[in-house]
Write a structure and sequence with these properties.
11 strands, rod-shaped
């Protein structure tokens, strides 16, 4: 009797244990456990077991849950060299599919993606070699390399954004009918930071104003070199900058004495008398260089040149003779100049993509003016070369 009772208890215990084993395990727990098995197989470098657990996760997915995220799966394809699976899935991951995946419940948080990302990044050069010697077309090899860099986020450095987009442009130009074209255009291009700014801000950043104050020294040519001593003075300029174009209004004031007398009829402007030179002008130029340290632009100049004795209020102690009014020479002239700014200080953070950041600079200006005073007096035949040094303040419009 005792043996029968003991046997009955053993049967009952086994039945209860079997009943407990048959209870369904919730799907989130099954997904989490399978992902851990997949990770263990991956870290043990066991492709067969990894593929088995990957298939198990795919079977656990449904219309509600995601068991293996698309970028995890694609990294595994690179590790397994399963490029056919990769090329089959890429064209199907369009915007609508992404929205559907975003509505599903993601897998439980674990370290699977971090390990995949770390291992593939550390072995990326081996992956590059595997792609290069794989049985793939030239188009497939190029795309596989592009997508792999994208998955490892090697295109996120701001300095490389322009080169990354050029790389995509080159691929599409070479393969305009590629099955990966829509995916590349929809997902892989990286917008430049300034493209996120309001359009009105971008337009305003393309224009600005500048003002300079320069000390000048000149040298005469031809007869002027014998008639006048070297001029010294200052130059004030206002400048409007628009998309590399420079529009300026300038006026030069300088003084020099006569090396020899100037005659007009019976009147004489005697040797060693002072003279005043005033040269208002308009100029237009274009930036040939504009970077963080230096800005250089040539310009064409047109204006008036006025050479005259000092005005009466400048010589109050010794009034000038009335006939000095005969020695006022006013003529139009043309000129050319080369201006360089050495940028010393920025008033806001400098952006390599924006060439008009507000700054203070040392300005160097050299130029040549073709004068026409000889039409009134042959002793004034000649031109003028000049050098100017000073400061310039440039401010972009807000």
């Amino acid at each position: 009797m005792a043996k029968l009772l003991l046997f009955s208890l053993i049967l009952l215990s086994n039945a209860l244990q079997a009943q407990n084993d048959s209870l369904p395990v919730p799907k989130p727990q099954r997904i989490a456990a399978t992902r851990q098995e997949l990770l263990a197989s991956f870290l043990n470098n066991d492709p067969a077991a990894t593929s088995l657990w990957q298939d198990s996760l795919m079977r656990l997915e449904d219309s509600v849950r995601v068991a293996l995220v698309w970028d995890e799966r694609w990294l595994l394809y690179y590790w397994e060299e399963a490029y056919g699976n990769l090329f089959d899935e890429v064209p199907r991951l369009d915007a609508a599919t992404r929205r559907q995946l975003a509505l599903k419940i993601p897998p439980p948080k674990d370290s699977l993606f971090e390990w995949l990302d770390y291992v593939l990044y550390e072995n990326r050069f081996q992956v590059y070699e595997n792609i290069s010697r794989g049985f793939l077309t030239a188009e497939e090899k190029q795309f596989a390399l592009i997508l792999f860099d994208y998955l490892l986020r090697l295109n996120q450095d701001e300095v490389e954004i322009g080169e990354w987009n050029k790389r995509l442009d080159a691929f599409l130009a070479l393969h305009p009918d590629s099955p990966f074209k829509n995916y590349i255009q929809s997902n892989l291009y990286t917008p430049k930071p300034q493209e996120d700014k309001p359009k009105s801000s971008q337009v305003n950043r393309n224009q600005g104003f500048g003002i300079d104050f320069l000390f000048t020294s000149g040298r005469w040519r031809d007869e002027l070199e014998r008639t006048l001593r070297s001029p010294y003075g200052f130059d004030i300029g206002l400048n409007y900058w628009l998309r590399r174009w420079n529009f300026g209004l300038r006026c030069n004031f300088s003084w020099q004495k006569l090396n020899r007398p100037i005659f007009e009829g019976n009147f004489e402007w005697p040797k060693n008398d002072p003279s005043t030179l005033i040269m208002p002008a308009l100029e237009i130029g274009y930036d040939v260089l504009n970077n963080k340290k230096l800005r250089v632009y040539p310009s064409a100049v047109a204006g008036l040149s006025i050479l005259k004795p000092p005005s009466p209020d400048e010589e109050e102690d010794d009034p000038l003779p009335d006939y000095y009014s005969n020695f006022v020479y006013t003529k139009g002239y043309l000129g050319a100049a080369l201006t360089a700014d050495i940028k010393l200080k920025y008033f806001s953070s400098y952006d390599d993509r924006v060439q008009d950041a507000s700054y203070l600079s040392a300005r160097i200006r050299i130029g040549y003016n073709w004068l026409n005073w000889d039409k009134k007096n042959d002793a004034l035949r000649g031109d003028m070369f000049y050098l100017a040094l000073g400061v310039n303040i440039f401010g972009n419009t807000l």
